[in-house]
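FW: tagging you since you asked about this chain on Friday. Here's the raw sequence from the shared folder, copied in full. Didn't touch anything.
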Amino acid sequence: MITETGTEGAATLGGSHRAFEAGVRYFLGPLLPLLDDESVSEIMVNGPRDIYIERGGRVEKSGAYFEDEHALFAAANNIAQFVGKSINEEEPILDGRLPDGSRVCIVLHPIAAHGTSINIRRFSRQAVTPDFLLQRGALTPEGLEFLQLAVEAGLNIVVSGGTGSGKTTLLNILSTSFDDTQRIVVIEDTRELQIQKEHVVQMEARPPDAYGKGQITVRDLFVTALRMRPDRIVVGEVRRGEAIDMIQAMTSGHRGSLATLHADTPSQACGRLETMCLMADLGLPLVALRRQIALALDLVVQTSRLHSGRRLITHISEVDFDESTNTYRLHDIFALDTTKAEPILKWSGHRPQLAAEIPWRGLAQKVGLTKQILS
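HL: got it, structure written out here
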């Protein structure tokens, strides 16, 4: 959000940037009511006259508009200057971050056929707490306690889901269960996570400059992270060949890692990880790779957004490897019960491997609602 009273990020960069933000507000004039509306989580400009918003998980068309393509391009160009990147015919796509942490993506016309496209994804500056999930019915108290214990026990967890399904929010909330004494290294392509701990090293990838130099990839950051004595490694989103680095880290003593990726089911999440690992082109036999992924992953937490806009967790699944078929074997610990008027997460009856770790991890006294599950 860019507001008169909410410019902390820009203020820290000095008066020139504050003046620059004033310019952004001027060029983005038609969007100001949307930018200042806390209930708007995403703004989607599909050309001068087609502007949509997401509010409460639902997409609707707004009444805002730009006069013409020239006015829209001026807004895009001003944003580009503000985030320190170029956008022109040679570089028609921009991915950046506004002062408040909102993520912005711009695609110029004619690459965007109906006019310049601007997408602004907003992130609340208020710290999210575990109660946030309960208040919105995203999962049950039992499911929440199970996940908190899993994080404290050092399980490797991947949060899977589609765009806008709440993956980043869930990752932020899971990180609140890290021990306050632990050193946390965060790796992101574009910075979005808000880890609510003191000892955090937050690193962000960097694209090459106009001369093709200076690129820092997520894989580069992974190599660096392993040299920084991390107690926890958090990956904002696994997208490419860095998946193999994450899997190797998870199986080489760096327990308790968290990450997100795009997939529709826990099974697809394993398949996606497999595909991204193959992008690294290390020549690993497929069976060996699958065994490594199954060994690395403890849990896949599946998020989803319903047609009503409600975001919720649909599965908490344990990952195993079936030696007889050389494929992944997933056990749903919690799954969505859709027989109710309001779908709710329900224990499947499967006793998770976490149950055996609770005593020697010193977590027995924290088991309450999940006593039946973890006993």
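FW: The chain is about 30% helix and 25% strand.
HL: agreed, and The longest helix spans residues 69-83.
FW: great, closing this out.
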